């Protein structure tokens, strides 16, 4: 897996102003993208990546930097793109969290909860609810075990099924621009 740090991406984005040779591909949900994103980045959510492979092939004529909140979804996107024959991508280490921590500029919109925060909330509520329910109905503890197994799998594989399900909710789709239009603009650079 190829990665780059924030300083390198900042240099690439500065050079992009003159030569347009880098595509910043943000694979977070549209709601997360609306909250904060790197100027000039294109939002193609991870769960819709395959649908935009033809447009991505046209837009990825130079180096492409994949961005998500912390790096996990960008690595998954890199694997999916490579499997489709689209190579030459790099993942920004630490994702948008690292970008913001470094003091790099972001475009901010309406504040939304990150997907990771939503997963923590839902998992916590499921565990709390099932433990409470188990005081009256013991089999409810199986929900707690299921959530624990899912979190263990997510940690080991860096692939969170609950997060992928939450990404499909209308809340996380809101504010979405059309990725095809954004990719068309990226092709013209």
Structure in a nutshell:
Helix content is 54%, strand content 12%.
Topology summary:
Layout: E1 3-4, H1 6-19, E2 22-26, H2 30-35, E3 36-37, E4 42-43, H3 53-59, E5 63-67, H4 72-83, E6 89-92, H5 95-101, E7 107-108, H6 115-134, H7 141-157, H8 161-166, H9 170-173, H10 179-188
Parallel strand pairs: 1-6, 2-4, 2-5, 5-6
Antiparallel strand pairs: 3-7
Helix residue percentage: 40-55%
The shape is elongated
Radius of gyration (Å): 18 Å
Largest sheet: 5 strands, parallel
How is the quaternary structure best described?
single chain
Would you tell me the structural class of the helices and strands? alpha/beta
Poorly predicted regions are none
Can you put this structure into words, describing what you see?
It is a single chain. The chain has helices at residues 6-19, 30-35, 53-59, 72-83, 95-101, 115-134, 141-157, 161-166, 170-173, 179-188, and strands spanning 3-4, 22-26, 36-37, 42-43, 63-67, 89-92, 107-108. It is elongated, with a radius of gyration of 18 Å. It has 10 helices and 7 strands. 54% of the residues lie in helices and 12% in strands. Helix 3 (53-59) packs parallel to helix 10 (179-188). Strand 5, helix 4 (72-83) and strand 6 form a beta-alpha-beta unit. The strands form 2 sheets. The chain has a 5-stranded parallel β-sheet with strand order 1-6-5-2-4, sandwiched between helices. It has a two-stranded antiparallel sheet with strand order 3-7. The longest helix has 20 residues, at 115-134. With 189 residues, the protein is α/β, with parallel strands linked by helices.
